[in-house]
Specification:
- The structure holds three protein chains of three kinds.
- Chain A is mainly α.
- Chain A has helices at residues 2-32, 35-40, 46-56, 62-74, 88-123, 128-142, 145-159, 172-201, 204-211, 216-254, 259-268, 272-300, 302-308.
- By secondary structure, chain C is of the alpha/beta class.
- Chain C has one domain (4-274): P-loop containing nucleotide triphosphate hydrolases (Rossmann fold, 3-Layer(aba) Sandwich).
- Chain C is 33% helix and 29% strand.
- In chain C, a hairpin with a 2-residue loop joins strand 12 and strand 13.
- In chain C, helix 2 (127-138) crosses helix 3 (144-157) and helix 5 runs parallel beside helix 6.
- The chains are: A mainly alpha, B mainly alpha, C alpha/beta.
- The interface between A and B is large, with 62 and 49 residues.
Chain lengths: 310, 284, 280
Amino acid sequence: MKLFRYSLKKILGGLVTLLLAATLSFFISRLAGDPTIQMLGLSATPEQIAELKAQLGFDKPILTQYSTFIGDIVQFDLGNSLYAGQSNISLIQSRIWASVQLTTLAVALGVLLGIPMGVYAAAREGKIVDRVISALAIVGQSIPVFWLGLMLVLFFAIKLSWLPAGLAGGWQNLVLPTVTLATIPLARVARLTRAAMTNTLEDQYIIAAKARGLSRKRVLFVHALKNASLPVVTLIGLQIGTLLSGAITVETVFAWPGLGTLATQAVRSRDITLVQAMVVFGAAAFIVINLLVDLLYGFLDPRVKDSQNK
Amino acid sequence: MKSKFRSFLSLTLWNKVLLTSGLLLVLTAIFGQFLPVADPNEQSLDYGLLPPFFLEGGTSKHLLGTDLLGRDLFARLIYGTRMTVLIAVSAVFLGAIFGTLLGVIAGFKGGKIDAVISRITEAQLALPFILLAISVIVSRGQSLSTLIIVLAIVGWAQYVRIIRAETLSIRERGFVTGLRVGGISDIRIIFFHILPNVFGTVLSLATLEIGTMILAESALSFLGLGVPAPSVSWGADLASGKDFIDMAWWLVTFPGIAIVLTVLFVNAAGDALRTHFDLRKRMF
Amino acid sequence: MHYERILIYESGCSEMIEEIVKISDLCVEARSQAETIRAVNSVSLNVLKGEVLGLIGESGSGKTTLIRSILDLHERNVSIVHGEVFFNNELVLDTSKNVNKLASLRGKHVGMVFQSPRASLNPLMTIGALLDEVLRKYGGDKSKADRKKQAVEILNEMGLDGARVYRSYPHQLSGGMCQRAAIALAIATKPELIIADECTSALDVTTQAEVITTLKKLKSDYSTTLIFVTHDILLASELCDRLIVMQSGNVVEVGETKELLRNPQNPYTKALISSVPRWK
């Protein structure tokens, strides 16, 4: 029951945040400038601009535009693309699977490799293994992910011809993009796991567990890791934002037919409604995933439910 | 002058390295155009796609080779420093000021104001950075000011949470209550007592954010959303070099290395600053 | 120094008492960025089987470092540099011969209870889970149901509502309950010696009394030898048969409780005793 109330609170909070985020993005993009000029170019005449504005509904007062916008969102209507002749939602739908595939695999790879690396580094704190892993993690966070993709293509696809760079074919095509994108969560998860583990290993209950004669392995993986993984869980949720942005550039490098390339197409054709729709969609994805993460956290840490319902 | 040099010598070797690199970076950014390098925009179609001087076919006239249009890569790297540093520092400056103020106000005032600010910050953090940048650029067109504003918008929220927490812990310290009881106005307390105390945190966070901004700017430039030609940017170089990756690997390798080295330096400097200000280690 | 003591019980019988722990010339160093200090300086002492030994000193006297040495449970910057330790007449530490089997004493032979009750329990595990883990390792091949029964029994013996505490997480229990659960955890491995490291210092007086009662039970019901580390000399005098006083890493006085309190030889001991406000 406590878990239910905790969940309900979080879900309502998420909805509020989503509406706020949509509002924020609306006003930021509208107040930034006039997209109609961008769309028609510098040589546009005032009549052409006025015509386009009327067509798009941009001549109405901004608050009216806003209420239409929010009204539509609540009904799950993200508007229609200006150039593709489809609703934005159907456009997003057509591309989403490819992106989900890539992103999920990348997160999985990052976590599956990152956590053991972090544990290993913490267990051998100060020794060479630790320094190497920590250095790699720091470098990993300093590299532009799309450049890493290019370098991997250079080595593995061009110089060594081990893996394809293009699109056609099966799972081999997933390898390079996934590995590239995975460096984002991998570096951060490894670093955070290491930090969380070194902190946890100094806690009293770990010493107490050792004092009971429990094996080193057990102390490390059952007692320490359980506690250390909590901040990592939170981190994964927060990483989604960075991952989405990273995915856009990575998809561009590998010409991956996902939401990222859809976004760059939208830019090129100045398709503002599509861009706006994608912003709202991205925010929704972020909020939903973080909600799930929060719920997972509440499930993993028994202290949370009790403190929420005081 | 002499005493400054002496205090420089007393720093650890690592800190000296950092300081010198930083100085080099800033000097290149500001005075790069006066160096004896070619014009980065000078096209010379006869000399297109030349490899770096240490490879066969390269010349010492173009140390790192040229791109399709014959433009010297080394010169482009030097000139690109200015764009990178300028954009990143400006964006961080704007974002930090805005974010810090909001964070301090939220932490100091608490209550409804805190709740509102926190909610808005959460909402901002939910918005995906590149997509938000795209929506602004589509409205506003590409320019230097657009890019800086976009990055500032994306970056301000990072400061709020941390500065708010810092402000809360400062408030707990008691002397703030004393000041309020003493009748000092809130604004004075914020500006003369709280802000100086969070300054260290802000500085080290800002330095880390410069690294993030550099990566963000290069990503946007890579996608073609950066400052248009004739401005020189490392990210844009990567974009144009991408199509020739099989013929001219140097075009994608060196600009990337420049980015990585700069970000590594900035992160190292941020770490050093953080140690200097003796802050609690943060895991993120 | 090697001595056997003859203890006279009220009934008048006498027995030869063995030593369970014998420490010779133990030196432990603590390294910090600025300097290295001797936390424990050439300490020799012994612990007699079945007794309750009090180890008294102010903070910084080295008492915690000393007893942590028995299980080799120091922080990263602390290390044993010299000494010999015998457990039940078996050599477990000899620095000159590079022998260090102290870790093998953990759990099986020696148990420990720590100062902060909640901090020594894993916040993400129920007391039951913690007990089960220990019983599985030390209890032979019992079924899960048997282990649960045994765990609840031990908790009941400690004065707790066994069934309820078994299901609870540390944050759901009071400080005193946590400490008694920690004692249950320590006794569950059936060790011959239990070290209580300032385990009452973080508790209020009423709860302290409850925990002391529980500790007394360990001696009476389980015949466990007990080392009680504290800065509170009054508390130690209630519980302990013998007292060892430490100051700045050295042992300054050893003696039977009543005798030592009545007739302290060392000036530091005298000062410690006289600084306690007397009620009687």
